[in-house]
Description:
Elements: E1 7-16, E2 19-24, E3 35-36, E4 39-41, H1 48-60, E5 63-76, E6 81-93, E7 104-108, H2 119-132
Parallel strand pairs: 1-6
Antiparallel strand pairs: 1-2, 1-4, 2-3, 2-7, 5-6
Amino acid sequence: MSQEKPIEVVAGIIWRDDLFLSAERPVGKDYAGWWEFPGGKVEPGETLGEALVRELQEELGITASKFELWLEKIVEYPEYTVRLHFFDVWKFEGEVSSCEGQKFDWFKISDSPSVRFLPVNNEILRLLRNRESR
Length: 134
């Protein structure tokens, strides 16, 4: 594990009925073309909740209004370590739009999406399916 402090990142699992939202990483970002739960880095002085609200506003034009931390996961990449904070987002204001030119879509948790998710998100999808089946 890297001796440096992990990069803090928030990700929103945005729900609408029994569907969740996912977005494709845009061209120019690491892992462009892979799909993920929307979110991003926590800025200095921000709480995790503030970062989640800001990131979803910047990426999708929505304001999360009811959300809760579900899971934390550390992921080690060759160049850095990330601590991911996954939030269930139960309610939001506004219409989802592509503010960064990224594709997005709604998926049913019980389906295997036909898009390529980041490896860590495949694990999260498995955990969500297990949680939903209880």
